[in-house]
TrEMBL record:
InterPro entries: CENP-V/GFA, Mss4-like_sf. Signal peptide: none annotated. It comes from the Bacteria. It comes from Fulvimarina manganoxydans. Keywords: Lyase, Metal-binding, Zinc. The keyword Metal-binding applies. Residues 15-125 form the CENP-V/GFA domain. One of its GO terms (molecular function) is metal ion binding. Coiled coil: none annotated. Belongs to the Gfa family. It holds the Pfam family GFA. This is Uncharacterized conserved protein.
């Protein structure tokens, strides 16, 4: 298999972002671990959109300014999940799972500049919207990745590496 690796040109660190009203701001001080799209019905409902965008980071690399509010729920798997949002404008900033205590998923639509992002993979394509076209060589899984994101993480790393080696076209 010779899957082409899409280069990702990450802007200089820190990455910055925040909520719609400006009460919550954040900085990410190290390269995120992975970026993927989830097409599950829970993400569709939570985002009120077609899919969820997850930019997984080591918790200690994300610093937040402002006080987040939190809601918690149990996923279908039984795992407890938490969503941190701006209490003033309601925008979801982070998702956390008790299964991954050292990580947070930044909701990537809140980045000040998200133009550089390309997903390393797709989960739950079984319920993806019919108009979302996934390139043939993207990593895509009908449900959750059976390898626990190992392949998506490796691909994201290779995409970042390719971006460092090649100049940005933009
Ligand atoms: Zn806000
Ligand atoms: Zn999902």
């Amino acid at each position: 298999m010779n899957e082409p690796i899409q280069p990702v040109h990450m802007p200089p660190l820190p990455l910055t972002g925040g909520c719609q009203c400006g009460q919550i701001r954040y900085q990410i001080s190290a390269a995120p671990m992975l970026y993927y799209l989830c097409h599950c019905t829970e993400c569709q409902r939570q985002t009120a959109s077609a899919f969820g965008e997850s930019l997984r980071c080591e918790s200690e690399t994300v610093s937040i300014t402002g006080d987040l509010a939190t809601i918690s729920w149990s996923a279908a798997s039984g795992t407890k999940r938490h969503g941190d949002y701006c209490p003033s404008c309601g925008v979801r900033i982070l998702h956390r799972s008790d299964a991954r205590p050292g990580n947070v998923n930044v909701k990537a639509g809140t980045l000040d500049d998200a133009s550089w992002l390309k997903p390393a993979g797709h989960s739950w394509t079984r319920s993806k919207r019919s108009f979302v076209a996934i390139p043939a060589d993207d990593l895509a899984y009908a449900e959750g990745p059976p390898d626990g994101f190992t392949a998506i993480t490796a691909r994201w790393k290779a995409m970042l590496e390719a971006g460092r080696k090649s100049p940005s076209e933009t």
